[in-house]
Description:
Structural class: alpha+beta
Low-confidence stretches: none
Radius of gyration: 16 Å
Number of strands: 8
Helix content: 25-40%
Number of domains: 1
Amino acid sequence: MDVKIKGPWELQKIHNWLGENRYPLRVACVGDDGYPRVVSLWFTFRDGKFHCVSHRDSPLVKLLRKAPKVGFEISPNQPPYCGVRGQGDAVLSSDGAADNLLLAIDRYLGDGNQSLATWLLSRVDEEVTITITPSRFFSWDYRSRMDDKETQQAVPAD
Protein backbone atom coordinates (compact mmCIF):
# COMPACT_ATOMS: atom_id res chain seq x y z
CA MET A 1 0.00 0.00 0.00
CA ASP A 2 1.30 3.44 -0.90
CA VAL A 3 1.43 5.92 1.95
CA LYS A 4 -0.04 9.33 1.16
CA ILE A 5 2.05 12.23 2.45
CA LYS A 6 1.25 15.90 3.02
CA GLY A 7 3.23 18.57 4.78
CA PRO A 8 6.82 19.77 4.70
CA TRP A 9 8.58 16.48 5.45
CA GLU A 10 9.39 13.72 2.95
CA LEU A 11 8.69 10.11 3.93
CA GLN A 12 12.29 9.38 4.96
CA LYS A 13 12.36 12.42 7.25
CA ILE A 14 9.06 11.30 8.81
CA HIS A 15 10.45 7.81 9.40
CA ASN A 16 13.66 9.21 10.90
CA TRP A 17 11.78 11.58 13.19
CA LEU A 18 9.45 8.81 14.40
CA GLY A 19 12.40 6.56 15.11
CA GLU A 20 14.33 9.19 17.04
CA ASN A 21 11.77 10.95 19.26
CA ARG A 22 10.34 9.67 22.51
CA TYR A 23 6.94 11.33 22.46
CA PRO A 24 4.00 8.96 22.94
CA LEU A 25 1.81 7.87 20.08
CA ARG A 26 -1.69 9.24 20.54
CA VAL A 27 -4.09 6.76 18.97
CA ALA A 28 -7.67 7.72 18.13
CA CYS A 29 -10.40 5.18 17.54
CA VAL A 30 -14.19 5.20 17.78
CA GLY A 31 -16.04 3.88 20.80
CA ASP A 32 -19.25 1.90 20.77
CA ASP A 33 -21.15 5.12 21.50
CA GLY A 34 -19.77 6.75 18.33
CA TYR A 35 -17.48 9.16 20.19
CA PRO A 36 -13.75 9.21 19.53
CA ARG A 37 -11.29 7.91 22.09
CA VAL A 38 -7.66 9.04 22.28
CA VAL A 39 -5.12 6.83 24.05
CA SER A 40 -1.40 7.52 24.49
CA LEU A 41 0.93 4.58 23.94
CA TRP A 42 4.64 3.97 23.98
CA PHE A 43 5.83 2.80 20.59
CA THR A 44 8.74 1.81 18.46
CA PHE A 45 8.75 2.61 14.77
CA ARG A 46 10.31 -0.06 12.57
CA ASP A 47 9.83 -1.09 8.96
CA GLY A 48 7.38 1.76 8.39
CA LYS A 49 5.03 0.60 11.16
CA PHE A 50 4.22 1.53 14.75
CA HIS A 51 4.67 -1.30 17.25
CA CYS A 52 2.88 -0.90 20.59
CA VAL A 53 1.78 -3.13 23.43
CA SER A 54 -1.38 -3.02 25.53
CA HIS A 55 -3.16 -5.33 27.96
CA ARG A 56 -5.37 -7.84 26.15
CA ASP A 57 -8.45 -6.63 28.09
CA SER A 58 -7.79 -2.89 27.78
CA PRO A 59 -10.60 -0.72 26.43
CA LEU A 60 -8.36 0.21 23.47
CA VAL A 61 -7.76 -3.42 22.47
CA LYS A 62 -11.47 -4.16 22.76
CA LEU A 63 -12.28 -1.24 20.44
CA LEU A 64 -9.57 -2.18 17.93
CA ARG A 65 -10.97 -5.71 17.71
CA LYS A 66 -14.23 -4.21 16.47
CA ALA A 67 -12.85 -1.38 14.31
CA PRO A 68 -9.13 -1.42 13.41
CA LYS A 69 -9.01 1.92 11.57
CA VAL A 70 -7.18 4.56 13.65
CA GLY A 71 -5.97 8.11 13.61
CA PHE A 72 -2.68 8.98 15.29
CA GLU A 73 -0.44 11.86 16.29
CA ILE A 74 3.08 12.15 17.62
CA SER A 75 4.21 15.60 18.76
CA PRO A 76 5.69 17.45 21.70
CA ASN A 77 3.39 19.29 24.08
CA GLN A 78 5.57 22.40 24.17
CA PRO A 79 6.70 24.85 21.49
CA PRO A 80 8.10 24.97 18.96
CA TYR A 81 5.45 22.73 17.49
CA CYS A 82 6.21 20.02 14.96
CA GLY A 83 5.10 16.45 14.47
CA VAL A 84 3.33 13.82 12.48
CA ARG A 85 -0.29 12.75 12.38
CA GLY A 86 -2.11 10.38 10.14
CA GLN A 87 -4.33 7.39 9.68
CA GLY A 88 -3.76 3.68 9.49
CA ASP A 89 -4.93 0.18 10.24
CA ALA A 90 -4.20 -1.70 13.46
CA VAL A 91 -3.54 -5.42 13.70
CA LEU A 92 -3.61 -7.21 17.06
CA SER A 93 -1.43 -10.20 17.84
CA SER A 94 -0.18 -12.08 20.87
CA ASP A 95 3.05 -12.77 18.98
CA GLY A 96 6.01 -10.59 19.85
CA ALA A 97 4.41 -8.80 22.79
CA ALA A 98 7.33 -9.55 25.13
CA ASP A 99 9.93 -8.31 22.64
CA ASN A 100 7.91 -5.20 21.80
CA LEU A 101 7.38 -4.43 25.48
CA LEU A 102 11.12 -4.74 26.18
CA LEU A 103 11.91 -2.40 23.28
CA ALA A 104 9.36 0.16 24.50
CA ILE A 105 10.65 0.00 28.08
CA ASP A 106 14.20 0.52 26.86
CA ARG A 107 13.13 3.42 24.63
CA TYR A 108 11.03 5.28 27.19
CA LEU A 109 12.58 4.31 30.53
CA GLY A 110 16.14 3.27 29.74
CA ASP A 111 17.74 2.43 33.07
CA GLY A 112 15.27 4.61 35.00
CA ASN A 113 12.12 3.69 36.92
CA GLN A 114 12.89 0.03 37.33
CA SER A 115 9.82 -0.48 39.53
CA LEU A 116 7.56 0.48 36.60
CA ALA A 117 9.56 -1.71 34.22
CA THR A 118 9.29 -4.65 36.63
CA TRP A 119 5.53 -4.17 37.00
CA LEU A 120 5.01 -3.96 33.22
CA LEU A 121 7.08 -7.10 32.65
CA SER A 122 5.21 -8.99 35.41
CA ARG A 123 2.09 -9.04 33.19
CA VAL A 124 3.74 -9.59 29.82
CA ASP A 125 1.80 -12.82 29.26
CA GLU A 126 -1.40 -10.74 29.20
CA GLU A 127 -0.15 -8.22 26.63
CA VAL A 128 -0.90 -7.99 22.92
CA THR A 129 1.06 -6.31 20.18
CA ILE A 130 -0.68 -3.52 18.30
CA THR A 131 0.92 -2.97 14.90
CA ILE A 132 -0.30 0.10 13.06
CA THR A 133 0.41 0.37 9.36
CA PRO A 134 0.07 4.01 8.30
CA SER A 135 -1.85 4.83 5.14
CA ARG A 136 -1.49 8.63 5.46
CA PHE A 137 1.04 10.95 7.08
CA PHE A 138 0.68 14.66 7.61
CA SER A 139 3.69 16.49 9.01
CA TRP A 140 3.97 20.03 10.35
CA ASP A 141 6.96 22.02 11.52
CA TYR A 142 6.61 25.52 12.96
CA ARG A 143 10.15 25.69 14.34
CA SER A 144 11.28 28.25 11.77
CA ARG A 145 8.32 30.50 12.62
CA MET A 146 8.89 30.16 16.33
CA ASP A 147 12.51 31.25 16.31
CA ASP A 148 12.91 31.94 20.03
CA LYS A 149 16.25 30.29 20.84
CA GLU A 150 14.90 28.97 24.12
CA THR A 151 12.04 27.11 22.45
CA GLN A 152 14.28 25.87 19.64
CA GLN A 153 16.16 23.80 22.21
CA ALA A 154 12.96 22.11 23.44
CA VAL A 155 12.64 19.96 20.31
CA PRO A 156 15.58 18.11 18.74
CA ALA A 157 16.72 19.54 15.42
CA ASP A 158 16.52 17.50 12.25
